[in-house]
Design brief:
With 704 residues, this protein is α/β, with parallel strands linked by helices. 44% of the residues lie in helices and 20% in strands. The chain is elongated, with a radius of gyration of 32 Å.
């Protein structure tokens, strides 16, 4: 029997060096051969071992349907009364239906599983002393994982190193805000929330970077222990709810029909056994026997078709929601714009090009090791300035509260220098001085007004504007913290531009033609967002900022969110509020995002959509993953989702209407004829033969 994890006791109360020795690991991680051995010993890092769908298991599952059980009951009754011909015919019909459903469902499920395997969650670990990206389920006790903002934490462990590392662990502890984690030793009796030196499976890194030693994996983790006690399932979609209610209705009709037909035929002195089998056959014939298989086949084939158009389905049941979506919320970067950000200029306070400002920005982007982002990439791709002799001393990583990033550098003969860049307002909040040419002056109201005037002018032209500031490092604490970002000198601006995508206007019009309203939700300032919306031809019906959202109660937001279609300067929690407000007013809401700040909204939306290159926590929260971040692909996905939904309804309407007519006419005829109008096996055979061609509906075309 496999062990779930090595027994190391209250690992959070033990020194990291002691744990490394207990787990026979090192700060540089495991060697590959040892990791493979441990994977065989402890099993994959999953909450519950995935039971692979075997052909035998899927075939046997075809007999779980209540309708099939009723038919098997009828077979047993016929056999007991020695009506062997009836028993053989009914059993043959059951087996034929089961084989047909099994073959279609097995083929579709196998193909769908291969597609889902294309989108896997990865973990960065140290193996043989080198960073490697491996599937999260291959992480084993003793592994050393590298964590950064956006990482989904793969298992439980203790921190070996951490730099301004904040973790969102609301899924375990219910804490509203991210919690700072630091290497330490805490009390043996510490609760989950008090274990500030630990990281837990299922939580996500919000900011900073860290290195953690994995101690427990799979069901031995804190999340796994909770999962053992809770049977969690995804919320029921509207279509699933409708199918369930339809099943209840059919069951009630079947029960009434069986009792009435059986009672009336017995009253007219017809054979009791024949009357029972006849009434049961009518009830079974009334139902669309292959509905479960048809739904599964439709969804699986729909996922294959969507994959061929660049949409990977992670949760089959969400396809119907995809088709019924009438509001799509998305960021502008990469969807409405090219997504290839370029640095348009590095300017001083007076708005003049400045090599010095660019060198500061380059040093900051070059030495930062936290959250990868396109803005830093745009800086690095420029011609490298002279940074010979500079070395990194420390780093204060980016987070979504401060909205700025700082590095401390030094060079021979120069004092250590702190360089900060980020959102303009957030950088200015730490500044007390401004560099005007060669002169450093106090940052007074006149300078602030000048800076804001330039900011608004450039933002109105569609530029994203960041601020750059510097500070001396002589008086800074070691290690450096956020508190060191004070008394800075503002030195200039960075201007970035992301041009609109060609053809995006037509795509927006196509979505509108499908009845899907587009809403932009972005962290950029409202001037840039408004310029982009106008550039792509979006008819802006209302603009709301994050500050306005904070002041607005939920009831007011329900109405305002429906009217506005441009939300700017919003944080992750506000994105979630917008999605929930739209759902509250009856909309089927889709949300498209790829960053850690999008995860709450992806969870809240009816349809969560991410992209293949998204951070792990965003892909894990999504129902669909796009292989390309393109609204035109999304348009095709919506059409295919509606096609799948329509084909499922076709089967329900066609078979139910035909069956109702046939079975009720037989029931009525039996009341007036001195004999049964059809034998039970004839009814079942007719129902089976009419269901057979319905299997092709899954690939049917749908009128738009």
């Amino acid at each position: 029997m496999r062990e779930e994890s090595p027994d190391v006791g209250a690992y959070w109360s033990q020194a990291p060096e002691h744990l490394l020795a207990l787990l026979h690991s090192t700060a540089d991680g495991l060697v590959t051969t040892d990791a493979q051995r441990r994977l065989g010993e402890f099993g994959p890092n999953v909450l519950k071992a995935k039971s692979k769908t075997t052909a035998q298991g899927l075939f046997l599952s075809q007999f779980k349907s209540p309708i099939v059980l009723i038919l098997l009951f009828a077979t047993g009754v016929s056999a007991v009364t020695q009506e062997w011909v009836d028993a053989v015919i009914i059993l043959a019909i059951v087996l034929g239906s089961a084989v047909l459903s099994f073959w279609q469902e097995y083929s579709a499920n196998t193909a769908a599983a291969k597609l889902r395997a294309r989108v896997t969650i990865k973990a960065n670990v140290l193996r043989d002393g080198q960073p490697q990206s491996i599937p999260a389920e291959d992480v084993v006790p003793g592994d050393v994982v590298l964590l950064a903002a956006g990482s989904l934490i793969p298992a439980d462990g203790v921190l070996l190193e951490a730099r301004d590392f904040f973790v969102n662990q609301a899924v375990l502890t219910g804490e509203t805000f991210p919690v700072e984690k630091t290497p330490a030793v805490v009390a043996t009796q510490a609760s989950l929330a008090e274990r500030t030196n630990c990281v837990f499976m299922g939580t996500s890194a919000r900011s900073g970077s860290a290195r953690a030693l994995i101690v427990q994996t799979g069901s031995a983790t804190a999340f796994g222990q909770i999962a053992k006690r809770l049977a969690l399932r995804p919320p029921e979609t509207e279509f699933e709810h409708g199918i369930r209610r339809f099943g209840y209705l059919l069951t009630e009709v079947m029960l009434v029909l069986v009792l009435i037909v059986f009672a009336v035929n017995v009253f007219f002195h017809k054979p009791v056994l024949d009357s029972l089998l006849f009434s049961v056959a009518l009830a079974v014939g009334l139902t669309p026997q292959l509905l479960p298989a048809i739904i599964s086949i439709n969804l699986s084939k729909g996922s294959q078709t969507m994959a061929s158009h660049g949409v990977i389905v992670r949760r089959l049941e969400a396809i119907e929601n995809f088709g019924s979506m009438d509001v799509l919320c998305t960021d502008k970067t990469g969807t409405l714009t090219e997504g290839v950000v370029r640095l348009d200029g590095a300017l001083d306070v007076a708005g003049r090009p400045s090599d010095e400002v660019f060198r500061y920005a380059y040093l900051n982007a070059h030495f930062q090791t936290g959250l990868a982002n396109p803005l830093d990439e745009a800086i690095i791709t420029q011609a490298q300035p002279d940074i010979a002799g500079f070395s990194k001393v420390d780093e204060i990583p980016y987070d979504f509260v401060r909205k700025r990033l700082s590095v401390v550098v030094e060079a021979p003969g120069l004092a250590s220098l702190l360089i900060t860049k980020g959102a303009l307002e957030n950088v200015l909040a730490g500044c007390t001085q401004v560099q005007d040419g060669e002169t450093t002056l106090p940052l007074d109201e006149a300078h602030l007004a000048q800076i804001h005037r330039r900011y608004e002018e450039w933002s109105g032209q569609g530029f994203r504007v960041l601020g750059v500031a510097i500070g001396t490092g002589d008086s800074l604490s070691r290690p450096h913290t956020r508190g060191d970002e004070r008394d800075l000198t503002f030195v200039g601006f960075l201007l970035f531009f992301d041009p609109p995508k060609p053809g995006v206007q037509e795509t927006i019009a196509d979505l509108a033609g499908l009845g899907v309203q587009l809403k932009i939700i972005t962290g950029d300032n409202r001037l840039v967002a408004l310029h982009t919306a106008q550039a792509v031809g979006l008819d802006v019906t209302g603009v709301m900022s994050g500050r306005e959202l904070d002041k607005m109660p939920d009831e007011a937001l329900w109405q305002a969110a429906g009217h506005a279609n441009l939300f700017a300067e919003v944080d992750p929690n506000q994105k979630e509020r917008i999605v929930l407000a739209l759902k509250k007013t009856g909309h089927a809401v889709g949300y498209m995002g790829d960053g850690i700040n999008d995860a709450p909204a992806l969870h809240a939306a009816d349809v969560g959509i991410s992209v293949d290159k998204a951070v792990d926590v965003a892909k894990e929260a999504a129902d669909f993953v796009l292989l390309e971040r393109d609204l035109s692909i999304l348009h095709q996905g919506i059409v295919l989702g509606r096609t799948t939904f329509a084909n499922t309804l076709k089967y329900v309407f066609i078979t139910t209407s035909a069956n109702f007519g046939n079975m009720f006419s037989m029931a009525g005829a039996s009341l007036f004829l001195p004999y049964l109008p059809m034998l039970p096996m004839q009814i079942l055979l007719t129902n089976f033969l009419t269901d057979f061609p319905a299997m092709t509906i899954a690939g049917d075309s749908v009128d738009r």
